[in-house]
Amino acid sequence: MRFDLADLRLFLAVFNAGSLTHGARSANLSIAAASERLRDMEASGGLSLFVRTRRGVTPTRAGEALAHHARLILRNVGAMQAELSEHARSIRSTVRLLANTAAITEFLPDRLGSWLAEHPKVDIELAERPSTEIVKALEHGLADIGIVSDAVETAALTALPFATDRLVVVLPRDHPMSAEKQVAFGQILGEDYIGFAGALQDHVDGHAAQSGHRLRPRVRLRTFEGVCRMVAEGVGISILPETAARRCRRTMPITSVRLSDAWARRRLLLCFRAEEELDPTARALMEHLRTPSGKQSS
């Protein structure tokens, strides 16, 4: 059973009109040509699509089923043609950007806002992923640009400095460790913990596992502000980027203490396969992102 788009358009024209004559006219075909096409469709499928009477045509059950699918097919074809036409005229383009938690929540909103405002016909397909997954996606051509921690291997990619991300322990102000200048990760492993539902938590969990421990969060939240609110209520402590903790300290009764572990101070890297492989739009975004905007944490 093989129908082309012209067949489906003719079939729907006849179906909607309930008449071969009016349907043929809508499809800009003679009655004879339209009748022959419909007979060929029925012969190809080995079924009857219409019952023909003196008053017109009535669809069979097979005809009803074909009408449903023909509408979907032609609607999707129309949408596809419209979208491809936009791209062909360079009306819109899309850059695929993957980033870890710290980049996507603390740095990219400021850096992307001005660029997107200046490029109204560019869309950014932004997704949060762990750094290891971002590197693999870039290596396999599944993303244009990535922002990762320097803790992962990036030798197969071009990697440029993007920002510094320092992790801190977030505590209630009256917590016994709140007066410390810094604490080691091992010191907090016995504390009630508030988790973050994102790639950052995977990073922290990985280091807990390396030390032979497992964090068991009392709850996992999707925003840094939500985590800090729980800490302020005395539910537990957490580990967050210093920029997020500093922001929350302005409105909540919490404090933060830097982690002394080396892995808690991460350089974020802007990565891509090779500059010559980036299309002009992705290259323009890369050049914008590689230029620091605003003061970064040290």
UniProtKB/TrEMBL annotation:
Keyword DNA-binding (UniProt): yes
One Pfam family recorded for the sequence: HTH_1
The HTH lysR-type domain, residue ranges: 3-60
Keyword Glycoprotein attached: no
InterPro entries (UniProt xref): HTH-type_LysR_regulators, LysR_HTH_N, LysR_subst-bd, WH-like_DNA-bd_sf, WH_DNA-bd_sf
Chain segments annotated as transmembrane: none
Keyword annotations of the record: DNA-binding, Transcription, Transcription regulation
Gene3D superfamilies: 3.40.190.290, Winged helix-like DNA-binding domain superfamily/Winged helix DNA-binding domain
Cited SUPFAM superfamilies: Periplasmic binding protein-like II (SSF53850), Winged helix' DNA-binding domain (SSF46785)
Family per record: Belongs to the LysR transcriptional regulatory family.
PANTHER family: HTH-TYPE TRANSCRIPTIONAL REGULATOR YBHD, LYSR FAMILY TRANSCRIPTIONAL REGULATOR
Protein's name in the database: LysR family transcriptional regulator
Record organism: Shinella lacus
UniProt lineage: Bacteria, Pseudomonadati, Pseudomonadota, Alphaproteobacteria, Hyphomicrobiales
